[in-house]
Design a protein that fits this description.
The complex is a heterodimer of chains A (498) and B (258). In chain A, 33% of the residues lie in helices and 25% in strands. Chain A has helices at 46-53, 76-82, 99-103, 118-131, 147-156, 177-192, 204-210, 233-241, 295-302, 325-330, 340-343, 351-356, 371-385, 401-414, 431-446, 458-464, 487-496, and strands at 8-16, 22-30, 35-39, 61-66, 69-70, 84-87, 165-169, 196-201, 213-218, 221-227, 259-268, 272-280, 284-289, 309-315, 318-320, 333-336, 364-365, 368-369, 419-423, 450-454, 467-472, 475-481. Chain A has a six-stranded mixed β-sheet, with helices on both faces. A six-stranded mixed β-sheet of chain A has the order 16-19-20-13-21-22, sandwiched between helices. The longest helix of chain A has 16 residues, at 177-192. By secondary structure, chain B is of the alpha/beta class. Chain B has two domains: 3-61, Winged helix-like DNA-binding domain superfamily/Winged helix DNA-binding domain (Arc Repressor Mutant, subunit A), CATH 1.10.10; 72-249, Rossmann fold (3-Layer(aba) Sandwich). Helices cover 36% and strands 22% of the residues of chain B. Chain B contains nine helices and 15 strands. In chain B, a hairpin with a 4-residue loop joins strand 10 (172-173) and strand 11 (178-181). Chain B starts with a helix and ends in a 9-residue tail after the last strand. The chains are: A alpha/beta (498), B alpha/beta (258). Chains A and B meet through helix 13 and helix 15 of A and helix 9 and strand 15 of B.
Chain lengths: 498, 258
């Protein structure tokens, strides 16, 4: 191991990002002249960690020591003054300034009189780019550069003045092999000067190529730090995907019933092509896919919310056609949309209306609504679904995401819908509400309802669903029975494309 | 037929049979299932019966299992009801003595081919009374306190069996998920039973969380299942979820289609 004194020491850094996610007690040491790679999946907290280091955001607790002094940057300028350069994913360059001007922006060579020494700047810029074998004309403005060229230029800025620490946030994400090689030359040059490099990536091959140390970050926690000699690709893959928690999802073991909703050859625009699947009585069918794979569109197509979709829908063997979500609801098919605050909660209306709007006719009598039964039922549903300390006259706009979702669910349960199409039902809600919502889902399935769960949370998909469908570029792969599915398999299929 | 007549008939039938399914009632009363469900719902609210999937059971008196009096009665049996959903036809299960497992035993009439192994005399009586499932009673010294058998004999006897699932009732779950009960022989028996099964189902009232009883029998582990009532605190739900423990609460809300 390294006998040098560390340059930068992070101890117990924590930061709450939102209800669902926080960085938890990250500790890390960076050594001068070495490359430390931080790997983790999307959304594991890598970038957030860099933001704390560079003063873009401040930690809730924990401390950082830099060059043996306490370091608590208030903003990115503080970080730069201390000698830390951050190169983000979307590089910040001045569009109308030339390549040379961008390179030297806060560090212009000056003449004796204090003016910018343009000829010297251009000369130095040319020399630097040549040394780094970057083929760029230093006089042209940055707006004429392509994405990869900008990325390289941003990286080259780190060589202009001696930084103590340079942090790269996924610099190679959009680079082809030749540019990647240049990037690695730059990094090599930095370490030779004694600069410490922190490099965030999710590419495993890069670690073995440039890293001296590698830290694995998963769900906001630093799982492990190792030196390069002690890792290889297979160890890394294992550490990265890790053990996923699928046992904590409450689901009763039950057999699959008769087909309930059959979708045949559903197409919509260019995004969805010939989608066919069947959901059975008592089943939770999972549909997952990457961003932009058409998940949300499909969910809306199923309840007739998207004009211009084609295909056949069979409900218990009978062909049906939904021209609107209201019509779908008459057949017992309810949509719980992704953005509950935008699309499900009735704003400025009280809880009573929000919860019973769909089922109001049930309370109709000759003299108007039967209010006693109505309030009794609201109380019953609220108590059963775990909405605590609420009053019928509350305005749910002010509820937490979890409670809003419970109100939406209770509304369709009160309407006695049978098929629940849920689009990201637990995204961004607190963990205890998640547990309640999973229990409601298990209850629906146990009593002969059915759920189509659209989700990007693979743990949730693997934990709650009986069968899993993967949507990729508008096509459907699967269904895969839960017993055969794994996180790796779904990720591979979802990214396979055509 | 008027609602009141139907209700009287349902009550009469239940007093005689302790349990009923919707199909039988439909034939008996000659009304739609929706109507029957509504009647059963009403009777459940009055505390006369408990609805189950596809039927109902009588809440009190005739059953050998005493129901607890006081405020928590419904919750208490609801934990048993939810736990019964974890069982599948044809399975071998072990029910260790406890008030919650006794409640669970009352819901086993929905099955006809399960084998119940138990050290609880009341549970054995309950199951033999319904004449539906097989019951094997473990041997041992009868404890006067809770009508169940414990001790070396019971532990030895247990060695002969292997079961799909073990249901235990715990009195305390500490903050570091240490599980505890009030007597030593109970703790010993649970410890031994835990080694003989693939799945441990822990029944616990919401008040039992973050408390300790005197005798601990180990920690809840990832993969264990817990069943408690829906009034359990948010903190507990979050805690168990993060510990990868399946938590079922008595959320029993879906009522099917009209």
């Amino acid at each position: 191991m390294n006998v040098q004194e560390p340059l930068f020491v992070v101890e117990g850094l924590s930061k709450k990002i939102n209800e669902d996610f926080s960085l938890k007690e990250i500790s890390l040491s960076l050594y001068p002249g070495s490359v430390h790679v931080l790997v983790g999946e999307n959304g594991s907290g890598k970038t957030k960690f860099l933001h704390l280091l560079c003063g873009i955001e401040r930690p809730d607790s924990g401390s950082m020591r830099f060059c043996d002094r306490l370091y608590a940057p208030r903003d990115i300028t503080d970080a730069r003054k201390a000698g830390i350069l951050f190169i983000g994913q979307d590089v910040q360059l001045f569009e109308n300034l030339s390549v040379a001007e961008n390179l030297f922006f806060d560090n212009y060579p000056r003449t004796l009189f204090g003016a910018i020494d343009i000829p010297r700047m251009i000369q130095q810029a040319r020399r630097l780019l040549k040394e780094l074998s970057i083929d760029l004309d230093v006089d042209i403005p940055v707006r004429k550069l392509g994405y990869a060229q900008r990325q390289l230029l941003a990286a080259a800025r780190s060589c202009v003045k001696p930084w103590k620490l340079v942090a790269f946030d996924e610099p190679s994400a959009a680079l082809a092999e030749p540019e990647r090689t240049i990037l690695f030359t730059i990094i090599k040059r930095l370490t030779q000067q004694g600069t410490s490099v922190l490099y965030v990536s999710h590419r495993i091959d890069e670690i073995c190529r440039i890293g001296d140390y590698v830290s694995i970050i998963r769900q906001g926690r630093l799982i492990d730090t190792r030196s390069r000699e002690t890792v290889n690709e297979s160890v890394l893959v294992h550490l990265l995907t890790g053990k996923i928690f699928t046992e904590r999802y409450p689901r009763y073991k039950q057999g699959r019933g008769a087909p309930l909703l059959e979708v045949q050859n559903l197409s919509c625009g260019v995004l969805l092509k010939n989608i066919s699947f069947t959901v059975h009585v008592g089943e939770i069918l999972g549909i997952t896919g990457l961003m932009g794979s058409g998940r949300t569109l499909l969910a809306h197509c199923l309840v007739g919310d998207v004009p211009g979709s084609s295909g056949r829908l069979l409900l218990s063997g009978q062909e049906v056609h939904f021209s609107s979500p209201e019509e779908a609801l008459q057949y017992g098919v309810a949509l719980i949309p992704e953005d509950r605050n935008e699309n499900a909660i009735l704003h400025h209306q009280d809880l009573t209306l929000n919860m019973t709007i769909a089922a109001l006719p049930q309370y109709q009598t000759v003299t108007g609504l039967h209010n006693t039964t109505l309030y009794k039922n609201i109380k019953k549903y609220a108590e059963r679904i775990g909405l605590r300390s609420i009053k019928p006259e509350d305005i749910p706009d002010t509820y937490s995401g979890g409670n809003q979702q419970k109100v939406t669910l209770a509304r369709w349960i009160a309407k006695r819908a049978r098929i629940y199409i849920m689009d990201e039902p637990t995204r961004g809600i607190d963990v205890s509400s998640k547990v309640d919502i999973y229990n409601v889902m298990a209850d629906i399935a146990a009593k002969g309802g059915a759920i189509i769960l659209f989700s990007s949370d693979l743990e949730e998909i693997l934990g709650m669903c009986d069968r899993i469908l993967i949507l990729t570029e508008g096509r459907m792969i699967g269904p895969i029975p839960k017993e055969e599915a794994s996180q790796e398999m779904i990720l591979r299929l979802a990214t396979s494309g055509t | 037929m008027f609602a009141i007549e139907r209700i009287n008939l349902i009550q009469k039938y239940l007093r005689e049979h302790q349990q009923v399914d919707v199909k039988t009632l439909r034939e008996l009363l000659n009304v739609s299932e929706v109507t029957i469900r509504r009647d059963l719902e009403k009777l459940e609210q009055e505390g006369f019966l408990l609805r189950t999937h596809g039927g109902a059971i009588l809440t009190d008196s005739v059953s050998l299992v005493p129901t607890r009096t006081g405020s928590g009665t419904t919750e208490y049996s609801e934990i048993g009801k939810i736990a019964s959903r974890l069982i599948q036809e044809g399975e071998f299960i072990l029910l260790l003595a406890g008030n919650l497992t006794r409640q669970l035993a009352r819901f086993l009439f929905q099955f006809s081919q399960i084998t119940v192994l138990t050290n609880d005399i009341v549970i054995a009586g309950e199951i033999s009374a319904t004449q539906k499932n097989r019951c094997v009673l473990l041997g041992g010294e009868v404890s006067g306190q809770d009508q169940a058998v414990y001790g070396t004999l019971t532990l030895d006897d247990l060695e002969r069996f292997h079961v799909d699932r073990v249901f235990v009732e715990v009195d305390g779950v500490s903050r570091d998920l240490d599980l505890s009960v009030t007597t030593q022989e109970k703790a010993l028996l649970i410890r031994s039973a835990r080694q003989r099964t693939g799945e441990l189902v822990i029944l616990c009232e919401a008040e039992g969380f973050y408390k300790n009883a005197f005798f601990s029998f180990g920690k809840a582990r990832s993969g264990d299942i817990m069943v408690t009532d829906r009034h359990v605190s948010d903190e507990v739900k979050q805690h168990l979820f993060n510990a990868n423990i399946k938590l079922f609460t008595t959320i029993d809300i879906y009522e099917g289609t009209p």
